[in-house]
Every structure is written in C-alpha cells, then in structure tokens.
Write a structure and sequence with these properties.
The chain is of the alpha/beta class. Helix 6 packs across helix 7.
Length: 209
C-alpha cells in the first residue's frame, strides 16, 4: 500500500462542508471538537448533551457524521450510539479517553467508521472527516483511497493505544510517551505505527503469560 501523505488528510476539499453532529456533555471537550472541525473545513452541529436531541439532530440535519462521546456516561452513551445506528443512516465515530479492547470490539460490532481519543482531537479530526467524505462518494476505483484512509486511522488508533500502555507502565506524561515511542521506532528502524503495533503485541503476550 502506498504511503499516505499526512498533509492530504487534514482538510476536507469540497464545496459543501461536511456536517458533523457532536454528542458530548463536556463543554470544554465540545468546544475543542467544534474548533477542530471548523479548522478542517467542516460544519459542526452542537455540542448536544441530550440523547433525544442528538437523534433529532441526526434526522433533521442528515449529517455526514456523528461523533458520540463514550468517555463520560458509560453504558448510557453506548445506548445512544446504538440508537443513532439503528434509527438513522448517520455514520458514527466513537470518542473516548483511552483505547480499551472491549470498547474497540463493541465499536466494530456497531459498525462505527472511526474511533477518536479525546487527548489528541486536533490531529484526528481532519483524517476522520476526509474518510467520511470518501465513504460518501466511494466507487470501485476509489477503494484504494478508502483503504489508505482507513489504514491512517488504524495507525493512529494503534499509536494511541501504545502510548497509553507506555504511560501506564512508565508513569509517563503523554509527551514523554510520544518521545519514547518515536525513540523505539528509530532504534528499531521502523515506522512509529509499526513500533506501536509491536508494543501492543508485547503487551498482549505479557498479559497472556
């Protein structure tokens, strides 16, 4: 697969901006997402913190994407995401404060098109909106582009999971975990994403043992 140029994944190139419903009760986080969506060329709707209002917004505005915050309300927010999936045609992106395996599996079963970590919103929104735009227009000859965008999001997810493991194991700050992961990748002569997957594999082996 061809390498993906990061600069090509940060801004939505379209006459009509992507409409994105934001479902979160965290005002500060909601404001950050709104700013990131606008910076990426999208049109935010919200933030909205009432379940029925989220459903109504998805039906009324027919948005291109809905970002559902799973980090604050636990099972109640999972039920909201499930309601959006069952009652609307809106593609979903889950938002959480960490990548845990059970939530990732649940998102896969739900059919979510992406998974965001709320500690790094600004760098994730652009690729997520570009993926949503591509999915809306996909044809057979565009499948390679979709695969590249999906891989970029998968790489980001692996990196965030690996950073979380390094932070927990070494009591590191996020910036320190970033630097540690980059140092390991440089030492082992592989990409940061490949190094992240190696960290995840090693962690899984330790847990199995």
């Amino acid at each position: 697969m061809a390498a993906t140029n990061k600069t090509e994944l940060t801004h939505v190139d379209s006459d009509a901006p992507l409409r994105v419903v934001i479902a979160t009760a965290n005002a500060e986080l909601g404001a950050t997402i709104v700013d990131a969506i606008r910076s990426a060329g999208g049109e935010p709707i919200g933030p909205i913190c009432v379940d029925d209002d989220v459903i109504a917004a998805c039906k009324r505005h027919t948005p291109d994407l809905a970002i559902i915050d799973l980090a604050l309300g636990g099972e109640s927010d999972r039920r909201l995401a499930d309601r959006v999936a069952r009652s609307t045609d809106t593609p979903l992106v889950a938002l959480s404060n960490a990548c845990d395996p059970s939530t990732l599996r649940w998102c896969g079963r739900l059919g979510a098109v992406g998974y965001l970590i709320n500690t790094d919103i600004e760098t994730q929104i652009g690729p997520t909106l570009v993926l949503a735009r591509t999915l809306a227009r996909v044809t057979d000859d565009q499948q390679d582009e979709v695969d590249q965008l999906r891989q970029a999001l998968e790489d980001r997810k692996s990196i965030e999971q690996a950073k979380w493991i390094l932070m927990q194991a070494g009591q590191l700050a996020p910036a320190e975990a970033d630097a540690r992961l980059a140092s390991l990748a440089d030492k082992n002569k592989r990409s940061v994403a490949a190094e992240a997957r190696a960290v995840l594999d090693a962690s899984a082996l330790l847990q199995a043992g």
